[in-house]
Amino acid sequence: MSQIFDRRRTTLAAVLGALLASTMAGYAADDTIKVGVLHSLSGTMAISETTLKDTVLYLIDEQNKKGGVLGKKLEAVVVDPASNWPLFAEKARELISQDKVSVVFGCWTSVSRKSVLPVFKELNSILFYPVQYEGEESERNVFYTGAAPNQQAIPAVDYLMKEEGVQRWVLAGTDYVYPRTTNKILEAYLKAKGVADDDIMINYTPFGHSDWQSIVADIKKFGSAGKKTAVVSTINGDANVPFYKELGNQGIKAEDIPVVAFSVGEEELAGIDTKPLVGHLAAWNYFQSVDSEANAAFIDGWHQFIKNDKRTTNDPMEATYIGFNAWVKAVEAAGTTDVDPVIDTLVGTTVPNLSGGYATIMPNHHITKPVLIGEIQDDGQFDIVSETAPVVGDEWSDYLEGSKDLISDWRKPLSCGNFNVATGKCGGNS
Amino acid sequence: MITSFLIDSLDRRGRIVVGLLVALALLVPAGNLLVPEGSAFHVSTYQLTLFGKYLTYALLALSVDLVWGYCGILSLGHGAFFALGGYAMGMYLMRQIGARGVYADPVLPDFMVFLNWKELPWFWHGFDMAWYALLMVILVPGLLALLFGWLSFRSRVTGVYLSIITQALTYALLLAFFRNDMGFGGNNGLTDFKDIVGFPIQAPGTRAALFAASALMLALGFVVASAVVRSKLGKVLVAIRDAESRTRFIGYRVEHYKLFVWTLSAVMAGVAGALYVPQVGIINPSEFDPAASIEAVIWVAVGGRGTLVGPLIGAVAVNFGKTWFTGALPEVWLYALGALFVVVTLFLPRGIVGLWDRVVSRRTKPAKEMDGSGRRAGEAA
Amino acid sequence: MRFLRLLAIVAALAAGLQPALAGRIADADLSARVAALGAGGFDEVETAITDLAATGDDRVPAILDRLGEGELMVRKADGAVFFADKAGKDYRLTDPVTGADAGPAPKATVEKIKVNNRIRRAIASAVGALTLMSPDPAVRRAAAEAVMKSADAAALPALEQAIAVETVPDIRAAMVAARATALLASDAPESDKVAAIAAIADLGSRDALGFLSGYTSADGAVGDAARKAAAAIESRLMLWDMGQNLWYGLSLGSVLLLAAIGLAITFGVMGVINMAHGEMVMLGAYATFTVQEVIRTSWPGLFDYSLLIALPVAFLTAALAGILIERSVIRWLYGRPLETLLATWGVSLILQQAVRSLYGANNREVGNPSWMSGSFSVGDIQVTWTRLWIILFALAVFLALIAVLKRTRLGLEMRAVTQNRQMAAAVGIRTPLVDALTFGLGSGIAGLAGVALSQIDNVSPNLGRGYIIDSFMVVVFGGVGNLWGTLVGALTLGVANKMLEPYAGAVLGKIILLLAIILFIQKRPRGLFALKGRAVEA
Predict the structure, then answer these.
(1) CA A199 → CA A408, B355, C228, distances in Å?
(2) Sorting pLDDT into bands at 50, 70 and 90, what band is B4?
(3) Are A161 and A193 in contact (CB under 8 A)?
(4) Among B286, C9, C158, C538, which one is most buried in terms of CB atoms within 10 A?
(5) Domain edges within chain C
(6) Quick check: ipTM above 0.90?
(7) pLDDT of residue B212
């Protein structure tokens, strides 16, 4: 008995020792610039976020091949916030105050961003947030490289009106803040365009909803009222696969009732047989099928880095790419990685995007993006059917009651994220 | 007098624990505020908030252990009480933001402005007052537990049936709080707090005070739990755990005992939640996730159920492990955590405390044979 | 009568005006019209399609079909339009009019003519009108349906011609319906339109309702007729809707049954609070994915049988994993059910992470074999093949399991061991072996559920987590240890959920159901079908 016990204890000690040694190795070099990566590698969001972690590692690798930044190599510090929102805040604090990273790339869900916000403000660091989101936020320490609602939703609806002659609208979404806001904005927009109340159906479902039979049947019913109908889907990641499978099974074709989605990209389609879905749409600022030299080079490099040439690329990856390059450019321009000068330099920084144009970081910490609309193809890729000129991200929507008077400008002397033009005051935060 | 009664109720180990917690409450904030950075005794803000969080987890674990370890009620829904306490606190903190929200609305929290709500829902009234919020921290989880327990214990729902319906309860609340129409901020929950009873929530002093409050509240919870389990009431609870029918036949009103300890435990969980929220800065429906409740049970199992020290050690150890693994081994830490649970249940049926006891008793009384099985009767399936 | 006479006149006129449908026009003329496809945006392409269709040339359908497939390309150098076939990385061009080979073209020198939904609809309606006379009945049927959807007055002459010679009754009926919709869209006299509404109303389907509701706000006799017809169809469909909801409920119930039935063994019969049950389902789904992957790369012809092949593979994978878990972990924990919860929770974390490391965190694609795709109608209830197969499969698995437990020696021994371990051992049953096999059986069945769920849900490491709570609810609601309880419980919860959903919405419906379960357990603390006797207290 005691022997067994002893052996157990020695193994334990050995394991602990090995673990310690492995972590110590990470802290060895000091002449590097540390870059924090705050994406969930386990839990429900791992499905989306793991790819972004790999993207940051890939970009750092490429940058180091070019000689790093300011003559120093970049070093990634990867942590796993495990899809747990309070853990996001804890890990953010760990990255900034323990690991002393110069910048953090991270978060996917709005709630994770909300959770880390106070930490970034308190410790004054920089977060690049690479996912489309609901807007209604502009913080000094955050740069939003994903789309605001006006960079996705409204152009998509315009396209459907013009190209498809849609008169009846189903706004279907997961019940959380992004779909709620987007649908509010769209509702106001559609009504402004003369769409009647009866011609708008709004439906919310819980996260991970998997039984779509009734809702798809309802959509079908709604669509058989003699007017051209389309579905605007803000359904979140996991629930999409069963939703599209049900659409395919119930025989709803894109020619009859097209579905335009704002959260379905190449990654999500990788889990579905897309043959029955050809013609359904998605609105993003980037598709893997974009025909540009920058994109071809990016995809090649990505395939080499990840050692799998079947891996897709998607919009949040492009947003990460833009954010990373903008940060590198700003650091080089400022000649330092110190937070305040870099934040000031970032505004106005222009870097190439992957669709052959340029992205500029605006004073509201959002960026300019072209809006692309793609139709799903049978190989899981998108065929781009419409592309707009670059649109500036609108953080405070003009279609929402509470925010129509707000603007954001982080340049001096205003330096305010929620300046109320009606009252002339910078509200709340500062 | 009550204090002395409570202190008397502690055994030697209990006194050490309470002494340690009080010392922590004094020394750690001092280490953070007074000791200069760079000194070996300096406690960073990161460590302070981290350990503050662990202490609230420890209080949650203690509350789970009180019903599971001493009364045989395995709750897979204690996270619900924790989260309700947290929401009560969160609502108070939201109201404290006042006009400093992004939309600068004097009354409505940001998420209501943004959903175009015109006035405060009725259940938000009163939360601008600290005493009311504190009352709710205790009342809401307490009343829910009272109602749920009254129904369940009276109709003699036991064992796994009870466990599963506690899970159903927290799952239903999870879904309900996710709904934006409920008025609790939906998936984003409540966040971006500014200050608590007039002090800025991010100030070092406030953080230190919150830490001290957590440590002291845990000490108080420990003393209360200790008083309960060492009283005659506690003996009846153990009797119920080990042979419920027999206890009933002897003439005890089993339901009443269960209901008391169940409600007390829910209140403790609620208080833990209320202390947790200002320290992590967010409360969102994922705290209602059944997985979170299961995790709390696991802390107890790792530490050693049926002991009062065990849950404290378990909560801190597992969470410390989690913090460390997610930073050091982000890709593989789930293997380590999963393996830990398997190993603990297989080889340490009485948790870390059981292991410690075995080591100590072997050293002092080598002749005495240990029971070793670690089994407990009365866990009817 | 008058209507028919009028139709005859219209038909005669049309035959005179319309160029012969099977005819051909000059190559140069057609080439010019094809070249117009390559010039400009969607508006221009649509006009070009209408132009092409108006020629009535029998080469047009093929050209339009390939346009829809995205195989029509413009040569950047001269703007000429070709059929393009992939040849390695480049394309091989063919002249669409003459069929002459136009040589290879590197990828960069050609550009695909873009097609969107509007263009696809235009193609379908044009091709439909042109192929109404096709010798192939399937093509004629598709053509009639396409023309009906487009409701285009321009298709009337072609329809009249086709109806006159059509011999297959139901295709003829489809054409008549199409004619009615086209007539409504045309500027025919009101009396004809009223007659057309009657013809559409006779269909009685939801599609018919859709067409009619386009005219319910019209004035005069047409509006009246449309309103009346629509109201009649609506009241008829109400009843069918109830039936449809019931069907959805059964279908959801069968999914719950599949997910829960393995748990009914490991948890219900053996008493192990098996938190890793969902991961067994996930293993089954990944086994299906792996089988399909192998078939795709090595024997693509077998794809339609991939699910059948996956069944035993998934069963064995999950069963082996289950046996391994039982032998290494669970066997030490019998009699301590609550501790099995902790250990299996740990196991589930490990399994999830293992799958994540092996297959990646992303969703994996599991395809539908052709016999599981699409749907058919029973009355106005739409039945998708996937759901029908899943219901049948769930019942089959259930019955097979009952047979194993009640009719085989293994089943007898399983029941003996779980009811009284010591006594079973005393009469010579090798209890460890039976334990392992029972757990393996429960896990294997979970694996089978994974095969079915891969057809309707995500195949991701989180697959199991989504079903574990529902599964426990079903087993507890039905009564632990009673398989029939699980069956009734699953179907009841499924139907109740779907009946609530139209009124309360998906989220609130589920919350109500959970609260109902909590209250139900108060009423019947041991579930729907409680076990009686001393075994209960053990």
Answers:
(1) 35, 67, 22
(2) low
(3) yes
(4) C158
(5) 2-201, 242-461
(6) no
(7) 95
